[in-house]
């Protein structure tokens, strides 16, 4: 599916990113494996994970190069794309998978934890995508594959920073898809369900939370990779501006927010008429106030 292609995968030293890099290489792509080897909250650094993924690809007969840059640094993000072009001659797909978590209930969230998560997820996605854009425009082709989350699409407790970043990525992807369509460039999002180092930090205190964690443990990271390979390939040339999820062997397509009800009052609305007329009419269509992904996906994937 990816013979002759060059793919850059961020956060590819472990978990979902590693599985994506391995499968892209198996399908013929040369892969830039980006991972600074930080901890789940963005602390530290270790070249081991990226190099190990590269070593495994090369041992299997593939082509890969390790990049240790931080995606939240514009110069570092640029180096990821430059490594692809200098080492392998081009760049065909960017997989924005890198991320950290600093989960805290809203009233205890610090400015530092807010900025750190936004910087890696949202700004990091912007930085790497921006660096690849001139090459995509010049060759009139390319694929952006961004990782969002049901924490942003649906909501989750204790993840205001992560949820905001992940829904922001959806908006970014949509704008990229619209702005780059004339250049033949695609931009799509994937919300993965998989047990990894990041999801291992999800609180599991209540029976419902424990049930959710146990369900996640059955969803392996390698199940996400086939959709990424497809979206990076020429076979997906007509697929852009979409949001997908992968849950084990289930692939989900999301709709975008669209109006579901409207009501017009010719004389105009007052606060009282909103309370007496509008809200009772709208209330049957209200989203559940405490909704999280477990309410939307209450069943176990096969």
UniProtKB/TrEMBL annotation:
SMART domains documented for this protein: PKS_KR
Gene3D superfamilies on file: NAD(P)-binding Rossmann-like Domain (3.40.50.720)
Sequence ranges assigned to domain Ketoreductase in this UniProt record: 5-201
Superkingdom field: Bacteria
SUPFAM superfamilies registered for this protein in UniProt: NAD(P)-binding Rossmann-fold domains
Record-stated family: Belongs to the short-chain dehydrogenases/reductases (SDR) family.
Name the record gives this protein: SDR family oxidoreductase
Organism whose genome encodes this protein: Novosphingobium ginsenosidimutans
